[in-house]
Amino acid sequence: MRKPIIAGNWKMFKTIAESVAFVNEVKGKAEVSGVESVLCAPYTNLPALVEAVKGTEIKVGAQNMHWEENGAFTGEISGVMLKDLGVHYVILGHSERRQYFAETDETVNKKTLAAFNYGITPIVCVGEKLEEREAGQTKEVCRVQTEGALKGLSAEQAAQTVIAYEPIWAIGTGKSSTADDANEVIAYIREVVKSLYNEQTAEALRIQYGGSVKPNNVSEYMQQSDIDGALVGGASLEPASYIALVEGAK
Ligand SMILES: O=C(CO)COP(=O)(O)O
């Protein structure tokens, strides 16, 4: 049985004080038995967030990391630094990073491999652009990105990885994929994992849907056979909305 996982991707939003106030509001509420709840915040907020979630079931994630442990990489943050902070998750290969910061399948793969060196669980994002969807390339794009990200991972590591299927045209647009469409692509991604590893690994790995998930549509996704949670941007920023998302994942 795969444990559902709701992860808020705060992107470049919130100060330290706002992050702590958020946790104080959702404490005890965005904690639903059987659902994993993760807040992925800007680097600057991570120490305060880790402190704020102590004694709760809420976990903290970063939104990126470098693959090297240290070195001359001005402006970068490594896995050892995130581990040092007590961070449990890291989002890798988000489409905004692929688009604006030149992330490639190769760098996503290096980062995914590196995350396991520090006991950090990667949430690897895959998903097609609108023109790729219209050209009927959705599954092919997701296959290439999934294979690229998982290259060199052991079956055990792959089973622990979280994949987030985020069709780019659905991010921040209010145009979400239908639950049936999202489930079909996600079931296909699971088939890809099966063909790379085995059935057991594919059945263990969790795959989220992301793209305009809101409190009023989250349960539709969660009812699908292969969708194990959601990676949520805009609707994760308000405490009441975040609580509703976690409750909707039951
Ligand atoms: O990019 C996303 C999460 O990583 C999705 O963002 P929205 O939920 O705002 O569409």
UniProtKB/TrEMBL annotation:
It is found in: Cytoplasm. It comes from the Bacteria. It holds the Pfam family TIM. GO terms for cellular component: cytosol. Pathway: Carbohydrate biosynthesis; gluconeogenesis; Carbohydrate degradation; glycolysis; D-glyceraldehyde 3-phosphate from glycerone phosphate: step 1/1. Involved in the gluconeogenesis. Catalyzes stereospecifically the conversion of dihydroxyacetone phosphate (DHAP) to D-glyceraldehyde-3-phosphate (G3P). This is Triosephosphate isomerase. It comes from Paenibacillus swuensis. The lineage of its organism: Bacteria, Bacillati, Bacillota, Bacilli, Bacillales. The gene is tpiA.
